[in-house]
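This part of the workshop introduces the protein records we will be handling. The question running through the whole workshop is how a given chain folds. To make this concrete, we reproduce a full record directly below:
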Amino acid sequence: MGFSLSSIIGGSIGSAFKDIASVFKVDPTVALEKKTELDKIQLELEGKLQDAVSNEITQSAEIIKAEAGSQSWLPRNVRPLLLLVWGLLITFNFFLPLVAQLFHYVIQPLVLDPWVYKLTAIGFTGYVTARTWEKVTSTDN
């Protein structure tokens, strides 16, 4: 008495399952057409995303140019002033406790996350690079 799957399921049930499974099988040409359509849609979406990012960058650059070309001193100098204040705060956070120790005061510096230092370095590097480029190209003296 051997074990037989057809004896458990039955011949008619097995053939019925085979027929049902064949109904859901997709024709390879149809599957290829659908895949091609999905690839086209994905490429269109990636293109739209790239256009949106470049548009946002362009608009940001135009805002910065408008601020830099303003007749008022505040819009032209607000970015450098904020960067200066930010750098001074970080510097005083480090040096003020050292100076206070000379006068026998104990002041603990604030514990700052590493991203604060990285952000400051990126800001100063970008600003110095932009000013250097402006001076080299003689667009702003």
